[in-house]
Amino acid sequence: MSAASSLPLGVRAALLGALLLSPAGAEDGDAARGERAFQRCFACHSVDPTEPAKLQGPSLFKIMGRPAAAVPGFAYSEAMQKAAAAGLVWDAATLDRFLIDPEAVVAGTAMSVPPVRDAEERADLVAYLKRSGTYRP
Amino acid sequence: MRGSILALIVLVASAAASANETKYYDLAKGDYPHDVAISEGGEVWFAGQKAGIAGRLDPKTGAIERIALGKNSAPHGVIVGPDGAPWFTDGGQNAIVRVDPASKAVKVWPLPPERMPYTNLNTAAFDGRGRIWFTGQNGIYGRLDPSSGDMKVWDAPKGRGPYGITGTPKGDIWFVSLAGNYLANVDLESGAATVYEPPTKEQGARRVWSDSKGRLWISEWNSGNVSVYDPAAKAWQQWKLPGASPRTYAVWVDPDDKVWLTDWSTNAVVRFDPETQTFQSFPSDRSGANVRQLLGRKGEAWIAESGTERIRVIRYP
C-alpha cells in the first residue's frame, strides 16, 4: 500500500484536487504581491518568528514542507491533528487547496477564512510564504 | 468536593434542558453560516461566508432565500439594525452591506481606499444615534453613518485582534480584541478607544454582548471563561464553563439577562444564569458544530452551526 493510499478518502481527494488545480500557478506566484495578499491571513497568522502576540493561528514561518499540526505548543483542533496523523504536509499544492476551501482539505478545521477564489492571488500567497524558508524538523 | 457539587449542578441543569425545544434547518452545501440574526418580525438572516450570500430563513415554512451580496463577497457578521434590515460585515468586499428586507436590494459601503483591500471585517453594532460601528480583525474599528455615507476608520489599540462589538441600551459601543486580550469603549464622536483589561491574562476576548443594565458579557476563547464587566461598579467577575478544557466562542445575552454561550470543546450551546450562577448545556446532535455565533429574541436562541451548515433554534420557556 502506498503512503497516499493509506490516507483517508477525504484527504486523498483534497490532495488530488490540489494537484489537478494548482501546481503551475503556485510555482509562478509573485511574493511581493503575496505580501499584500497576506492581509487576508494577518489577523491570525504571522511569518515573523519573533512575533510577540499570541495569535489564533499557528506561525507560518517556514511552513513549506512542514507536516500539519507541527508547531510545538500550539493548540490545534482535533480535525487538524487527525489530518496530520493521516499524513497531510503543507506544500504549494496543499496550501493552494486549503486557501480555496479549508473545510474541503481538513473537515472541521477551526480556520475560517473567506475563500481565496483567484488562482493568481493564491499563487502569490504561496510565493510569499515560501520566502520565509523551508521547514526543517 | 467542590468539583462534585459543580458536576451535580451541570448534570441537573442538563436534564432540565430537555424541557426546551430544538429544531435544525439544513442549508445548501457551501453556504457556511458564520453568523445569524433575527428581526423583531421573526425573519432569520444568516451570513453565508463561503457562498457570498445573505440567507433569509422563514422559520414557519423552512423556506430559505439566498441573496448574492456582490463579487468576492464573504460576509462574516450579520445583525438586524433599528431599521429592521440585515447589515453585514463583508470581509470579501471589505465593506458594510445592507439588504433591504422588502425589495432585497443590496447596498454596499466599501471601506476607504487606504483601508483596501482587506481588513478582515468582523462584526457590527448600532449606537443610539443611527450609526453602525464595526471591527476589523487586522487591527481596525470604524463607524458608518448610513444617512450621509460618512465612514471613519481608526487603528485599534495593540494592533490586530478586534472581534466582537456590542451596543448597550444607552447606545454606547464596546468591542473586544481577541489577539489584544482587552475590552474597549469608544467615544461616539471622537472615536477614541479606552481599553479595559480583563483580570485573566491572555484570555482571548472573542465576543461581547451587553445585558439590559449595560454590563458587558465576554466569551473568552483562550481561558474558557465567561466574564462580565460592570462599568458602573468598575468591577469584573468571571466563571469557567463546564468541562475539562472549555473553548468559549460566542456570547449573546437574552432579554431576561440570561447569558448564552457556545463551547467548542463540548460541542454545545451553554446558558449561564447570573442569578444562580449555574450552567445549562444544550449539545448539538452532530459532532463538529463549530458554532461561531448565536443571537435571538425572547424565548428563542438562534444558532449558526458553521461546521454542519445548519441553523439551529432553541425555544425555551
What's the topology here?
The complex is a heterodimer of chains A (137) and B (317).
Chain A: H1 9-21, H2 23-27, H3 31-37, E1 66-67, H4 78-85, E2 89-90, H5 92-100, H6 102-105, H7 119-130
Chain B: H1 2-17, E1 21-26, E2 33-38, E3 44-48, E4 53-57, E5 64-68, E6 75-80, E7 86-90, E8 95-99, E9 106-110, E10 121-126, E11 132-136, E12 140-145, E13 150-155, E14 162-167, E15 173-177, E16 182-186, E17 193-196, E18 205-210, E19 216-220, E20 225-230, E21 235-240, E22 248-253, E23 259-263, E24 268-273, E25 278-283, E26 291-297, E27 300-305, E28 310-315
What this model shows, in words?
The complex is a heterodimer of chains A (137) and B (317). Chain A is mainly alpha-helical and 137 residues long. Chain A has one domain: Cytochrome c-like domain (Cytochrome Bc1 Complex, Chain D, domain 2, Orthogonal Bundle). Helix content of chain A is 42%, strand content 3%. In chain A, strands 1-2 form a two-stranded antiparallel ribbon. In chain A, helix 5 crosses helix 7 (119-130). Chain B has 317 residues and is mostly beta strands. Chain B has 2 domains: 2-23 and 77-88 and 118-315, YVTN repeat-like/Quinoprotein amine dehydrogenase (Methylamine Dehydrogenase, Chain H, 7 Propeller); 31-76 and 89-110, Thrombin, subunit H (Beta Barrel), CATH 2.40.10. A 4-stranded antiparallel sheet of chain B has the order 1-28-27-26, with no helix packed on it. A 4-stranded antiparallel sheet of chain B has the order 2-3-4-5, with no helix packed on it. A 4-stranded antiparallel sheet of chain B has the order 6-7-8-9, with no helix packed on it. Chain B is globular, with a radius of gyration of 18 Å. Classes of the chains: A mainly alpha (137), B mainly beta (317). Chain A binds chain B through residues 36, 39-40, 42-44, 53-56, 79, 101, 103, 107-108, 110, 112, 114-115, 117, and chain B through 32, 34, 49-50, 72, 74, 76, 91-92, 117-120, 137-139, 158-161, 178-181, 202, 204, 221-222, 264, 287-288, 290, 292, 306-307.
